[in-house]
Amino acid sequence: MKTFFTATIASVALAGIAAAGTVNFSNFGSTWEVQASGTPINGGFVSVGTTGVSDFSDAAAAQTALAADFTAFGASTDFGGAAAFNIDGFFSGVGQGNGGDAAFDGKNIILVGGDGADIATSSHLFVIDTGAPFAADAPLFAASVDINSGDIKLGAVGGTAVAAGVAGAFQAAAVGAVIPEPGVSVLALFAAGFLALRRRR
User: How far apart are CA 84 and CA 182, in angstroms?
Assistant: First the structure.
């Protein structure tokens, strides 16, 4: 299993060499399996970018702020997809863009992921301030970040990994699932039941 992960690290590192303005992001280096309440995440999203959000003391409030203020650098990836060899809890992506753009230049690379399609729809999120800054090509900007890079803003190391031969588990922080408002038909049934109850009395 160790040989498998070593080979994986090499393949991921080579993925971004060909293009300028590249950030490789993966957890195959740390081999920390990302989970939501103890279950390896499948699907979801993982992205790199920048944000002005600095207060993560309240996870739900941080989710709202981050959804409104996160600038992605290139495309996101998912957990357990083909790029991650279909292993739940693992991800591998390559963000490409202009690191010298005003939205990125000099700002720290933020690694964010969740179990929803994006930040706003996730019930669990992790946020890592990698401490590595974006920069202009000189001649080529390239960086590689992992879930153990820099400071953990949301999430925590802990739990028991499901995959064999990995370092351990990392729990994305629960931010609270969105409870949908009741539809008109549900409200009508509730009202009818309430009126029937009153008539019996």
Answer: 38
CA torsion sign, 138 to 144 to 150 to 151?
positive
CA distance 40 to 87: 9
Q: Are 77 and 46 in contact (CB under 8 A)?
A: yes
Structure token digits, residue 25: 């992001």
Residue whose structure tokens are 């064999």? 164
Residue 119 has pLDDT above 50, yes or no: yes
> Domain segments of the chain: what residues?
2-200
pLDDT for residue 106: 98
Instruction: Please answer whether residues 116 and 122 qualify as being in contact, where contact means their C-beta atoms are separated by less than 8 angstroms.
Output: yes
pLDDT of residue 16: 40
CA distances from 80 to 49, 56, 58, 135 (A): 21, 27, 28, 30
The pLDDT tens digits for 163-182 are 999 999 999 999 975 544 55
pLDDT for 185: 53
Phi then psi for 115, rounded to 5 degrees?
-95, 5
Cα-based angle 185, 189, 192 (whole degrees, multiple of 5): 135
Are the C-beta atoms of residues 33 and 170 closer than 8 Å to each other?
yes
- Choice between 47 and 184, residue whose per-residue pLDDT is larger: 47
Q: Is the pLDDT of residue 2 over 70?
A: no
Compute the C-alpha angle 97/146/13, nearest 5°: 65
